[in-house]
Amino acid sequence: MSSTAALRPGIALGGYPQREDLRDGWLDRAAASLAGFVRQAAYGRNPGHGEFLERVNAAAAGLAGLSNQQIRDSVPELRRRLYSEGLKEDLVAQVFAIAREAADRLLRMRPFDVQLIGGRVMLDGKIAEMETGEGKTLTATLPACVAALAGIPVHIVTVNDFLVMRDAAWMKPVYAFFGLKVGTITEGMQPDARRAAYACDITYCTNKQLVFDYLKDRLLLGQEARPLHLQIEGLHAEFPRTQRVLLRGLCFVIVDEADSVLIDEARTPLIISSAGDTSHASQIYGEAIALARLLRSGLDFAIHPRDREIELTEAGRRRAAELAEPYGGVWIGPRRREELVRRALSAFYLFQRDKHYLVRAEKVQIVDEYTGRVMADRSWERGLHQMIEAKEGLPTTGQQETLARISYQRFFRRYLRIAGMTGTGREVARELWSVYGLAVVTIPTNRPVRRQRIEDQVHVSAEEKWAAIVEAARAHHAAGRPLLVGTRSVAASEHLSELLSKAQLPHQVLNARQDQEEAKVIANAGERGRITVATNMAGRGTDIRLGPGVAELGGLQVLATERHDARRIDRQLFGRGGRQGDPGSYQAIVSLEDEIVQELFGRYATRLGRRFPRAGRLLVAAAQRMAERHNARTRRELLRIDDHLSDLLAFTGRPE
Asked: Which helix (H) or strand (E) element contains residue 234?
């Protein structure tokens, strides 16, 4: 690993270190993607590090006979050497050895060799792909301790506030053993508390909170973020901006569930906004919704669900002009009128209640389609959120005016060093390399995987699919095996719950409506005969332990009711069973009327499926792969647009 000097605050950019924005054209991205493919094929499954493990074991040889205090007494000298000499292999091995001993003594969790390898991979600035249940939370402490002792601020990013608090509290004894301070960033914290948390050696936070805090710093610093100017300001100002920023820069980040944060979330830019003029908003949105109700699908407009777009036909434009004539005002101009109509039609046909959003306390709350969790403080931009409020008959909030925006791609590429861990990374290894320069290294499991795959069932109709799922649930319940059923939306989970109730099968439901009960529901999901119906919330950051006698019955059975837009998400769900050498099995029971198939093939899928029953699996697989390619193109386009906007904003003098 290179010198640590550039990773510390105060060295680069006047105390706010970060990497300059990259600019790469299509040829650069294509070359990087090909390089990522070659690297993955050659090195992805051979992490090596046998010599490093020998160094760790050699460093640990004399620790067992020492007291906790005796080991702690050696830390200051180790910290001094790391700070002055950098991350040399023998020093890193000593920290890993002490961290392993501390975790064993304080947490009764001794990191396995594969966890040491995973930690070393992340310290090198790579993605460690570790199977679910292999202990990624503990693994992250190893590179975090090394970097923090070397004086490098460490951010550990996870996907929700629950995991932020849980992981920080769980691992805090290990960090405290080294004399390291741990901070947490969660929703609702005040600026002073955030600043104090980021001032700690290691800070746990969500990707959303981290990016928004960074944007706040960018707004505070403005264009005048040059080192010399900030240093001069620090000499004469009573409370300079360098003391008011929240972060200490972007030095070293470890991203948990890296594929979710760096790939799935990368389709949505992060925006800081302020409330705009609301004086006529309710009336305009109400008129748009009323007008949209009168337009006819197929005649006046066409729906493109994969692109989340509505296209007005020529007849639709004329009809909209006729219907809007009595309104006057903003409806007179054709471009503004057609944009309002498209937004209203999108609210009706592209965004569904209990799938894309919930309605709580007279507010529209977005549901993250990849995690299944509510994003209470987020809103859709350019008036779409207000259109959905009008559609639902709710009070209309003001359209937001953008103050700053950035994509996850641009943000995380600004870190001086980025690493991560995930259970499902190899499918997107090429994209991770081409966008972030991150290699994916598959870490072997500590114990052999005993998870068994049961052949998929592909039914023609959704009704047939749900009936088969209920019968499967009945059979597993009767046999005493716990069953975890994964659904793609709140509505689907509640529909299945109704069917199970009619079949008199006891079960629990976990979706965005019951997000406060997540830990309790998941903790019980491995008990004998238990049926748990869950959205993607059960797919990440959770641990299902088998109840007494369940292993002898075959362990946890995981059942998917739809294919997702990415095979990785399916694999993450299936990985809830068969953890750490436990037995388990998984199966998908899907239909040709599922959304992912219908968006691509429409009614032709069901016709073909009835004539050629064996074609069903091919149609589902083709739809999923095409959805993956489409989403990858969407992310590339967002990065291109983000770079273009950045250039325009730089020309106008705005920071982002």
From this structure: helix 227-236
Q: State which amino acid sits at residue 366.
A: I
- Give, for 155, the enclosing helix (H) or strand (E): strand 154-158
Backbone angles phi, psi at 9, to 5 degrees: -60, 150
- Distance in angstroms (rounded) separating the CA atoms of residues 285 and 268: 24
Cα(245)–Cα(204) distance, integer angstroms: 18
Selection from 358, 617, 590 nearest residue 489 by Cα: 358
- The residues with which 526 forms a beta bridge, in sequence order, are none
Cβ-count burial of 24 within 10 angstroms (0-12 exposed, 13-18 middle, 19+ buried)? middle
Distance (Å, whole) CA 585 – CA 624:
22
Contact indicator for 359, 394 with CB cutoff of 8 Å? yes
* Amino acid in position 252: F
Block means of pLDDT (10 residues each) for the chain, 656 residues, are 63 66 60 57 61 95 93 96 94 97 96 96 96 91 98 94 93 97 95 96 95 90 59 59 83 94 83 63 85 90 84 92 86 88 91 87 80 71 85 79 81 95 91 94 92 95 96 96 92 94 94 67 88 76 83 95 90 88 94 91 86 88 91 83 64 51
User: Alpha carbon of 131 to those of 296, 448, 467: distances in Å?
Assistant: 49, 11, 32
Round to whole Å and give the CA distance between 556 and 545: 9
* DSSP symbols for 283-308: HHHHHHHHHHHTS-BTTTEEEEGGGT
Q: Residue 76 and residue 178: Cα distance in Å, rounded? A: 9
pTM: 0.83
Helix (H, G, I), strand (E, B) or coil at 546: coil
Contact 347, 337 (CB under 8 A): no
Q: How far is residue 509's CA from residue 496's CA, in Å, rounded to a whole number?
A: 9
Token pair 């389609």 is at which residue? 369
Quote the CA–CA distance of 66 and 69 in Å, as a whole number.
8
Residue with tokens 């350019």: 382
| Angle of CA points 262, 265, 267, to nearest 5° | 105
SS3 at position 592: coil
Q: Can you tell me the distance from the alpha carbon of 615 to that of 617, in angstroms, rounded to the nearest whole number?
A: 6
Rounded CA-CA distance 387/342 in Å is 10
Interatomic CA distance for residues 161 and 156, integer angstroms: 12
- The 3-state secondary structure of 20-73 reads CCCCCCHHHHHHHHHHHHHHHHHHCCCCCCHHHHHHHHHHHCCCCCCCHHHHHH
* Neighbour count for residue 318 (Cβ, 10 Å): 12
DSSP string, 460-491: SSHHHHHHHHHHHHHHHHHHT--EEEE-SSHH
